[in-house]
């Protein structure tokens, strides 16, 4: 369940960050109410068992005021997600499902909101121990909203669920299915943002599955096909993990470092690569 909370918090942060700039200067009271509710909710999340009932009621009330009084303001969207998450975290599943239904009515044309809402519906089933129902919801998110943050990570999430339960057979099957899905997606959208994201998920899938040789191939492909400062910053750290800590292949690590060095013009990166190469050579 920890993964669910992390995913939702990341989505809320990104969603509100984007919408805040659209509403800057407007609906100040709604934004202030949202901030107050989120700060209180953060404290409650850290110590849910000792949270005073009055504080819980105030948090719920603040979110509901936003959804009622400021429902047309951008801040209402992250507030609707936050309220649903609040209900889930406190095992108020009927209220959470009602909140999800309201989201479906108000924001049916917003793929980010809808994918998050459907994921939370699956999360409720997962918390209740109803995995077949949860799996159905998660598959629905993947099918209906494949290019959202939530939709893209569903295949990997499903594999990690089985992994967390010690179900090796289903975990292996799910990881294989996820790898095929991400690989096909990357090939279809090669050179585009979706392809880049799919390639990233492919690498993560191989890593969590312990398929380090395949992870190395995926890493090389990302670096060669998506050369950019962002790619190097995000993926070069995996060179040490895969080739030095897991596969014991320092020669491949040096080769990859030198390949990037021959392409980039970033002097700081070149210096960093030289240091990395020297470190690997001293390690041999």
- What's the tally of helices? 15
CA radius of gyration: 22 Å
Strand content is: under 5%
Number of strands: 0
Structural class call reads: mainly alpha
Main sheet attributes: strand count, strand direction, barrel closure? none
Low-pLDDT regions: 20-26
Helical content stands at over 70%
Q: How does the overall form come out from the CA principal axes?
A: elongated
Mean residue pLDDT: 90
Seen as an oligomer or otherwise, the chain set is single chain
Count of discrete structural domains: 3
Taken in chain order, the helices and strands follow as: HHHHHHHHHHHHHHH
What's the end-to-end separation, in Å? 42 Å
Give a structural overview:
The chain has 284 residues and is mostly helical. It has three domains: 1-137; 146-210, no CATH class; 213-284, no CATH class. Helices cover 82% and strands 0% of the residues. The chain has 15 helices and no strands. The longest helix has 22 residues, at 2-23. The chain is elongated.
SSE layout and pairings?
Blueprint: H1 2-23, H2 28-46, H3 53-69, H4 76-89, H5 93-106, H6 111-127, H7 131-144, H8 149-164, H9 168-188, H10 193-209, H11 212-225, H12 229-235, H13 237-246, H14 250-263, H15 267-283
């Amino acid at each position: 369940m920890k993964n669910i909370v992390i995913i939702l918090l990341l989505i809320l942060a990104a969603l509100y960050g984007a919408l805040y700039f659209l509403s800057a200067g407007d609906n100040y009271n709604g934004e202030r109410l949202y901030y107050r509710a989120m700060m209180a909710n953060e404290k409650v999340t850290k110590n849910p068992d000792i949270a005073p009932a009055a504080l819980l009621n105030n948090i719920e009330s603040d979110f509901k005021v936003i959804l009622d009084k400021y429902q047309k303001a951008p801040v209402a969207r992250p507030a609707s997600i936050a309220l649903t998450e609040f209900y889930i975290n406190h095992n108020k599943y009927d209220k959470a499902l009602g909140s999800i239904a309201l989201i479906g009515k108000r924001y049916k044309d917003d793929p980010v909101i809808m994918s998050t809402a459907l994921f939370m519906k699956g999360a409720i089933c997962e918390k209740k121990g109803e995995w077949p129902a949860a799996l159905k919801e998660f598959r629905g998110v993947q099918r209906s909203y494949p290019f959202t943050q939530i939709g893209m990570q569903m295949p990997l999430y499903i594999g990690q669920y089985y992994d967390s339960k010690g179900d090796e057979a289903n975990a292996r099957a799910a990881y294989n299915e996820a790898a095929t899905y991400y690989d096909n997606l990357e090939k279809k959208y090669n050179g585009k943002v979706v392809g880049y994201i799919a390639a990233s998920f492919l690498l993560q899938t191989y890593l969590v599955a312990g398929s380090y040789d395949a992870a190395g191939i995926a890493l090389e492909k990302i670096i060669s096909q998506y050369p950019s400062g962002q790619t190097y910053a995000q993926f070069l750290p995996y060179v040490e993990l895969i080739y030095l800590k897991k596969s014991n292949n320092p020669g491949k690590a040096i080769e990859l470092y030198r390949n990037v060095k021959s392409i980039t013009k970033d002097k700081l990166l070149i210096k960093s690569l030289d240091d990395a190469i020297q470190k690997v050579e001293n390690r041999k």
